[in-house]
Design a protein that fits this description.
heterodimer; A: alpha+beta; 2 domains; six-stranded antiparallel β-sheet; 15% strand; B: 139 residues; alpha/beta; Rossmann fold; 5 strands
């Protein structure tokens, strides 16, 4: 994805993290459910063929009624299977988003993944990622995509003033706009263990996407929780790695002395 | 019959196929891996990488192509593909966030067999794959 977002060079697909096992099991369960539903439809088809044969052999009102009932049942099962397939597709999208968020401990790659999800899975054309600044507890703009013309975006820091962003950061609730006090279409607070570590603020959707759909709400909810824990883990890891390198340097110095 | 079945049944009919994915987003690569399983996927991360992979695996049955990529865009890749007689017949499905009517028209005029806008649902992808597959000779 090079649609204006600063991205790291693509590299081969990462190995799944340990937590990916649980997700993979969820995906396998969903596929097993889908297979069972497909088997039901096939069984119904066999039953209809059998009923047709019986009707052919002994045509009568009772047999015809059985055939009509079997066809109605098949119709219902087919509709239910289509719905299950749709749900499986939704689960696959959520699974992939979660998997990819936790596939790395590099903070820059986590941010890139959040941008990829916003653009490719949600269909956001203009958005900003705010992350809490560890030093002064303010929010800095860590990623801009699509040149939103909101003044605070250009200042690289968010110091308050947008009603939707302020309220989402304050209570951790997902917000949808725009409103008179905010141009944002959605504000997704990123929270882990009741601590807000940032927010994804979406200002505009792609031209061919007129509005958010039901699936987007699930995805944005998931993003709020999993992006936060992925950012948190990657920050802790990079801090620890930095400290480790410092300690190793000190030990080398002491050994030399 | 009411709803059309597009899920695993349809993927199973193309499971012996080999598909080249030319896409710079690792997230979307993973999406194809999950949604198109058990189809064999060959992964490339930009147009130039795609051409390299094609030279190693020219037997791909179709190509799924992004537009906005570093080094070589999808449209540049498509132009090179169509200019190579041995590869020109491989069907290409463009899947892109560039979704304006003129973008779609440009992609199709440049030789793409189908155009799918991101974000997409699994059933949208399978519908397009089925359409392309129905025009292919049997595996």
């Amino acid at each position: 994805m090079s649609d204006g977002t600063n991205m790291t060079d693509p590299s081969p697909l990462a190995d799944p993290p340990a937590g990916g096992d649980l997700l993979a099991r969820g995906e396998r369960d969903a596929m097993a459910t889908l297979r069972r539903a497909q088997q039901l439809v096939r069984d119904a088809q066999v039953a209809i063929e059998e009923a047709s044969r019986v009707v052919g052999e002994s045509a009568g009102p009772a047999s015809e009624a059985r055939l009509v009932a079997a066809e109605a049942e098949r119709e219902e099962l087919t509709n239910r299977l289509a719905e299950v397939e749709h749900q499986v597709g939704r689960l696959m999208t959520l699974y992939v988003a979660t998997y990819q968020l936790h596939a790395t401990l590099d903070p820059v790659e986590v941010q890139s993944t959040i941008a990829e999800i916003a653009l490719n899975l949600v269909g956001a054309e203009q958005f900003v990622l705010l992350l809490v600044d560890d030093e002064d507890q303010g929010y800095e703009v860590r990623l801009i995509h699509g040149e939103p013309d909101t003044p605070w975006v250009l200042s690289q820091r968010y110091t308050g003033g947008d009603f939707l962003v302020d309220s989402a950061l304050a209570d951790g609730g997902l917000r949808f706009g725009p409103t008179e006090q905010s141009p944002a279409l959605a504000v997704v607070p990123l929270r882990v263990q009741d601590v807000t570590v940032g927010a994804l603020v979406i200002f505009k959707l792609l031209a061919h996407k007129p509005a958010f759909v039901k699936e987007d709400h699930d995805l944005l909810d998931l993003l709020g929780a999993h992006a936060a824990s992925a950012i948190f883990a990657s920050r802790v890891y990079s801090k620890t790695a930095r400290k480790l390198r410092t300690l190793e340097s000190l030990i080398r110095l002491v050994n030399k002395g | 019959m009411g709803a059309q079945l597009l899920g695993e049944e349809s993927v199973n009919t193309v499971k012996n196929r080999k598909v080249l994915i030319v896409e710079d987003s690792r997230l979307i690569h993973k999406m194809y891996e999950v949604m198109l399983r058990p189809i064999t996927l060959v992964s490339a991360f930009d147009g130039r990488d795609g051409l390299d992979k094609l030279s190693q695996s020219p037997d791909v049955d179709f190509i799924i192509l992004d537009i906005n990529m570093p080094r070589m865009t999808g449209l540049e890749f498509l132009a090179q593909l169509k200019a190579t007689p041995a590869l020109a017949q491989i069907p290409v499905i463009i899947v892109s966030t560039e979704g304006k009517e003129e973008d779609v028209a440009r992609g199709l005029q440049n030789g793409a067999a189908a155009y799918l806008r991101k974000p997409f649902q699994r059933e949208d992808l399978l519908k397009v794959v089925n359409r392309i597959e129905s025009k292919q000779p049997a595996a």
